[in-house]
Amino acid sequence: MLNYDDEAAVYDATRGGVPRAEAAAAAVLGLVPPAARTLLDIGCGTGLVTERIAGGRPGLRVFGSDAARGMARVARQRVGAVVLADARRLPLPDAAVDAVTAVWLLHLLREEGAARAVVAQAARVLRPGGVFVTTVDKDAGHDVGSDIDEAFAPYLALGPSDGMERIIEYGAEHGLDVGGSAVFRGHGQGRTPLRAADGVRRGYYTSRLALPGAAAEQLAQVLTALPGPDRRRADPQYRLLAFRRR
């Protein structure tokens, strides 16, 4: 499991940087109604996407929250209004904001009930008619039919915590109805075999892969032996779902 306090220093550089953040923010804003005046970005990380959501919609007051001190510290330098908080227990009253976003968050929540709790909190703090916008099937977005995906296939974990049908079910339980979707490109996220092998060894893929015992090293060795180890494969395509609060 990654230590996101430590990861904050290198997170943006290793996750597609500004181009990926701009694509995510543009897709999010396409699903947020023009009438929205307040938006909470939960699991905001370093705030790179949050900052661009704010910059792309003048008049929209944008706040962030993250559970990792290192991430929240970096995000405050970009957004200002960022609170340290577990997304399962948001420090906001009911019906407090017009929009909630969760970009690249739910897939990380492998603990039983965690993703459901986050969806419940998003619904709770939304005003009636407000929207919750979240990525779904994040890890599946990386499956571009490459030889890296073939190497990953025997180790895929079952039942992603951000599976689309699962999140739709959680939303319905808490008064959230699907109201739209969008797809955006993960600029700069196309993997090389060497980069994938390094990620396996460092624990980057714990939300997607089951790698008990020596399996991580075995997979890393398979990846490093692939042809074109420095050649970048295709970029992923991420999916957003938008839910409206009844």
Topology readout:
Blueprint: H1 4-7, H2 17-29, E1 38-42, H3 48-55, E2 61-66, H4 69-79, E3 82-84, E4 97-102, H5 114-125, E5 126-136, H6 147-152, H7 164-173, E6 176-185, H8 193-202, H9 215-224, E7 237-245
Helix pairs in contact: 2-3, 5-7, 8-9
Radius of gyration: 18 Å
Tell me, briefly, the overall form. Answer: globular
| Straight-line distance between termini | 36 Å
CATH class descriptor name: Alpha Beta
CATH structural fold name: Rossmann fold
| Biggest beta-sheet profile | 7 strands, mixed
Give helix % range: 25-40%
Number of helical regions: 9
CATH architecture: 3-Layer(aba) Sandwich
- Order of strands in the sheet with most strands: 3-2-1-4-5-7-6
Q: What would CATH call the homologous superfamily?
A: Vaccinia Virus protein VP39
Structural class by helix and strand composition:
alpha/beta
State mean pLDDT (0 to 100 scale): 94
Sum this structure up briefly:
The protein has 246 residues and is α/β, with parallel strands linked by helices. The protein has one domain (4-142, 160-190, 236-245): 3-Layer(aba) Sandwich (Rossmann fold), CATH 3.40.50.
What features would you describe in this structure?
There is one protein chain. The chain has helices at residues 4-7, 17-29, 48-55, 69-79, 114-125, 147-152, 164-173, 193-202, 215-224; strands spanning 38-42, 61-66, 82-84, 97-102, 126-136, 176-185, 237-245. Helix 2 (17-29) packs across helix 3 (48-55), helix 5 (114-125) crosses helix 7 and helix 8 (193-202) runs antiparallel to helix 9 (215-224). It is globular, with a radius of gyration of 18 Å. The chain has a seven-stranded mixed sheet, sandwiched between helices. It contains nine helices and seven strands; from the N terminus they run ααβαβαββαβααβααβ. The chain is an alpha/beta fold. The model has no long low-confidence stretch (mean pLDDT 94). The longest helix has 13 residues, at 17-29. Helices cover 34% and strands 20% of the residues. It has a single domain (4-142, 160-190, 236-245), classed as Vaccinia Virus protein VP39 (Rossmann fold, 3-Layer(aba) Sandwich).
